[in-house]
Automatic annotation (TrEMBL):
One matching Pfam family: DUF1697
Full protein name: DUF1697 domain-containing protein
Organism: Conexibacter woesei (strain DSM 14684 / CCUG 47730 / CIP 108061 / JCM 11494 / NBRC 100937 / ID131577)
InterPro entries: DUF1697
PANTHER family: BLL4334 PROTEIN, DUF1697 DOMAIN-CONTAINING PROTEIN
Domain of life: Bacteria
Length: 179
């Protein structure tokens, strides 16, 4: 099965360093094939015999802990799920400015009611849409100073939900790498 793995919280601000060449070696050592990585934020594409996302994520999390001495939560999607994420983009006009469009990948589905109290008008022109296990963000001034992005935290999304964001360029490139 073709998988896309997103490592959360690595290579940020000089901490939790995971060189991508070493990550490729680590994944290959787990028996995964055709391993590719993209940029330093922890994106990997590979083939694995396992068909259960949680099993694959847990194997990688343990290997990272053993190799680097720190944890990193892994969010998994199959190539087919990733293609569906791209197809479901509710902000197609933003694709031409990929740094303004982000997808927050969630470890599990979030009840839409968790976001009912977010006053969308208060954050305009920023916008968001929740689909399945993804939260799409259109942030015309970028994510760095976005009040909306700062509001849509893991705490708001629910206990046990891990979230990791990627800009549209990364989303599109990972789909290409996945074939």
């Amino acid at each position: 099965m073709r998988w896309i793995a997103l490592l959360r919280g690595i290579n940020v601000g000089g901490s939790k360093k995971v060189p991508m060449a070493r990550l490729r070696e680590l994944l290959s050592g787990l028996g995964y094939d055709d391993v590719r990585t993209y940029v330093q934020s922890g994106n990997a594409v590979f083939d694995a015999p396992e068909t259960d996302a949680r099993t694959v994520a847990q194997r990688i999390e343990r290997a990272i802990e053993d190799e680097f001495g720190f944890g990193s939560r892994i969010t998994m999607r199959t190539r087919e799920e990733w293609a569906a994420v791209v197809a479901a983009n509710p902000f197609p006009d933003a694709v031409s400015e990929p740094k303004t469009l982000h997808v927050v990948f969630l470890s599990e589905q979030v009840a839409p009611s968790r976001l009912d109290d977010v006053d969308r008008a208060a954050f305009e022109p920023e916008r968001f849409e929740l689909h399945e296990r993804e939260l799409y963000l259109w942030l015309p001034d970028g994510i760095g100073r976005s009040k909306l992005a700062a509001t849509l935290t893991e705490r708001r999304l629910g206990d046990g939900v891990t979230a990791t964001a990627r800009n549209w360029r990364t989303v599109a490139t990972l789909l290409e790498l996945a074939g």
